[in-house]
């Protein structure tokens, strides 16, 4: 068998060139410039065509995507690069428009987050004509090719955005099955896509819409399932919203023995389990920086708290935009407790926390 591995000298040269290119283009990545040159491929720059504010704390953007941009599947997300004060920040947003839309645009809706630099910029400072770096659509929170007879959607807040893409796609294809949608928001004024959801349900008698206004009614929980969807256990279910809601749904579906019928999408990572707050130290090799922290702090957070700006995207372990190489030590995935301790392991620093002393190639 032929040995296809590159000689060590070649690998070292390639790494040196990569680091040199990174130094020249910092704080952007070399790929940012390549994306501008080859905008016809998977990514490139999107142009803001229209800006709307469906609620006081949310913004809806219509983005014209670059020529040749891949068609998404309903429910997928894109990673956007937003330049703020000369530094590019990446975030992931679900596509709320249907894949069947044929005007060269997609739609996203971003809710302002307290202390969120990017969401605040999109809501308050972005203007029509602005250019945003955009990656190809990704994600597996999608409908199957063969639609089940009954669908149940449970969403809260901006968790409606991927489901909105699914509903619009079903509508465009004329294939709306029996649907129950439970959507929660603080009040009617805060309900993203509230009017469109009501119109959708009015057009389709097989669609049942339950709007939950949490300030008046309290939060939706699993004790209400039988009341809103008789026979819910027989439905294929998609849920997107706060972690507390999703965790409750996942536990309930697992206890019922139907965990495979529930599909969830998180906008934020799960809260780390108690007991992880032991002392840790991370050495960022390329940055020549040593940082002290705790075992319940993601490596990305430790880096940013100490003046570093690693590449990242979703901050919840979905987009893999933050992947870095572990050189020594051990890290733990805060979502599931899985550990990585082999030199050369690729770890997602937005969801992995250090255990003891760790070296990362950053």
From TrEMBL:
Q: Which PANTHER family match?
A: NADH OXIDOREDUCTASE HCR (PTHR47354:SF6)
Q: Which SUPFAM superfamilies match?
A: 2Fe-2S ferredoxin-like, Ferredoxin reductase-like, C-terminal NADP-linked domain, Riboflavin synthase domain-like
Q: Which Pfam families match?
A: FAD_binding_6, Fer2, NAD_binding_1
Check the record and name the Gene3D superfamilies matching this protein.
3.10.20.30, Nucleotide-binding domain of ferredoxin-NADP reductase (FNR) module (3.40.50.80), Translation factors (2.40.30.10)
Any GO molecular function: oxidoreductase activity
In this protein, which residues make up the domain named FAD-binding FR-type?
41-144
**Annotated signal sequence range:** none
Q: What is this protein called?
A: Ferredoxin-NADP reductase
Q: Which InterPro entries match?
A: 2Fe-2S_ferredoxin-like_sf, 2Fe-2S_ferredoxin-type, Beta-grasp_dom_sf, Cbr1-like_FAD-bd_dom, FAD-bd_FR_type, FNR_nucleotide-bd, MRET, OxRdtase_FAD/NAD-bd
Required cofactor(s): FAD
UniProt keywords (A-Z) are:
2Fe-2S, FAD, Flavoprotein, Iron, Iron-sulfur, Metal-binding, Oxidoreductase
UniProt family annotation:
In the N-terminal section; belongs to the FAD-binding oxidoreductase type 6 family.
């Amino acid at each position: 068998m032929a040995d296809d591995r590159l000689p060590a000298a070649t690998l070292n040269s390639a790494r040196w060139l990569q680091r040199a290119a990174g130094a020249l283009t910092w704080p952007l990545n070399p790929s940012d410039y390549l994306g501008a040159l080859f905008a016809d491929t998977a990514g490139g720059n999107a142009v803001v065509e229209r800006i709307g504010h469906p609620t006081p704390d949310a913004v809806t953007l219509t983005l014209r995507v670059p020529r040749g941009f891949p068609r998404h599947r309903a429910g997928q997300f894109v990673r956007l690069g937003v330049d703020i004060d000369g530094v590019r920040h990446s975030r992931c947003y679900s596509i709320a428009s249907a894949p069947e839309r044929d005007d060269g645009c997609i739609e996203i809706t971003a809710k302002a987050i307290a202390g969120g630099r990017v969401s605040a910029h999109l809501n308050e400072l972005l203007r029509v004509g602005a250019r945003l770096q955009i990656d190809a659509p990704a994600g597996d929170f999608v409908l199957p090719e063969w639609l089940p007879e009954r669908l149940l959607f449970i969403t809260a807040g901006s968790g409606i955005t991927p489901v909105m893409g699914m509903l619009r796609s079903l509508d465009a294809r004329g294939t709306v099955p029996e649907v129950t949608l439970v959507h929660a928001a603080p009040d009617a004024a805060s309900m993203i896509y509230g009017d469109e959801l009501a119109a959708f349900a009015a057009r389709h008698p097989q669609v049942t819409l339950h709007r939950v206004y949490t300030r008046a009614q309290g939060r939706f929980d699993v004790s209400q399932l039988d009341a809103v969807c008789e026979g819910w256990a027989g439905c294929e279910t998609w849920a997107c919203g706060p972690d507390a809601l999703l965790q409750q749904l996942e536990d309930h579906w697992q206890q019922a023995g139907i965990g495979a019928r529930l599909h969830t999408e998180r906008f934020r990572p799960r809260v780390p389990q108690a007991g992880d707050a032991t002392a840790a130290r991370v050495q960022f090799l390329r940055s020549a920086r040593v940082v002290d922290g705790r075992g319940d702090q993601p490596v990305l957070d430790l880096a940013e708290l100490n003046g570093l700006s690693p590449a990242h995207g979703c901050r919840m372990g979905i987009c893999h935009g933050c992947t870095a190489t572990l050189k020594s030590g051990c890290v733990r995935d805060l979502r599931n407790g899985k550990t990585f301790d082999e030199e050369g392991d690729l770890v997602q620093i937005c969801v992995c926390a250090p255990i003891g002393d760790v070296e990362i190639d950053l």
